[in-house]
Amino acid sequence: MTRFVPRRSTPFLTLAVVLAAGMLLVGCRTEGDQNATEGRAPTGADAVVEVNLDESQMKLLDQVRGATIAFDISNLGGRTRSFVVTGPDGSIELQGSVRAADSERMIVELDPGTYTVTSEAPGEDRFEQTLTVAAPSASATQTSAP
């Protein structure tokens, strides 16, 4: 007795190959993004400011050089926290939030000056720190870490 075995069609095989290639590309992109936070500014940013948040503190350096600033924010706490950068004239330059135990990258154009960075969560302390932004240098990009 002959047993019938259906033949896989070429479109399904093609789809499987395309999906496998896509997963490989996603893996490569993730590695590149990780390198951006480990010393190289992301494309288009002059500097990276690493920010660590939790229930008791906010850590970031107080000076950065550049116009396009990428804030890499890690919320190590148990609640969603706001993240706000206020300009020298009191205007809000950047506003967002970072969920509990999550990270977020926020990019903003800032003129040289002194800015106020704040973060808070409902029922917890409000953190505030000053960030001085200097004009970008003519040389390479920089990373600022706490």
What's the count of strands? Answer: 10
Radius of gyration: 22 Å
The H/E string reads HEEEEEEEEEE
What's the helical proportion of residues? 10-25%
Report the average pLDDT across residues: 78
Please count the helical segments.
Answer: 1
Kindly report how far apart the N and C termini lie.
Answer: 74 Å
How many strands, which pairing sense, and closed or not: the largest β-sheet?
Answer: 5 strands, mixed
Going by helix content, strand content and strand pairing, the class is alpha/beta
**Beta strand %:** 35-45%
Label the overall shape. globular
Contiguous runs where pLDDT drops below 50 for at least 5 residues: 1-10, 12-40
Oligomer: single chain
Describe it.
This protein has 146 residues and is of the alpha/beta class. It has one helix and ten strands; from the N terminus they run H-E-E-E-E-E-E-E-E-E-E. The protein has one helix at 10-37; strands spanning 47-53, 58-59, 63-65, 68-75, 81-86, 92-98, 102-109, 113-119, 127-134, 142-144. The strands form two sheets. Strands 1, 2, 4, 7 and 10 form a five-stranded mixed sheet that branches. Strands 3-9-8-5-6 form a five-stranded mixed sheet, with no helix packed on it. The longest helix is centred in the N-terminal third of the chain and has 28 residues, at 10-37. Mean pLDDT is 78; it is low at 1-10 and 12-40.
SSE layout:
Blueprint lengths: L9 H28 L9 E7 L4 E2 L3 E3 L2 E8 L5 E6 L5 E7 L3 E8 L3 E7 L7 E8 L7 E3 L2
Parallel strand pairs: 1-4, 1-10, 3-9
Antiparallel strand pairs: 1-2, 4-7, 5-6, 5-8, 8-9
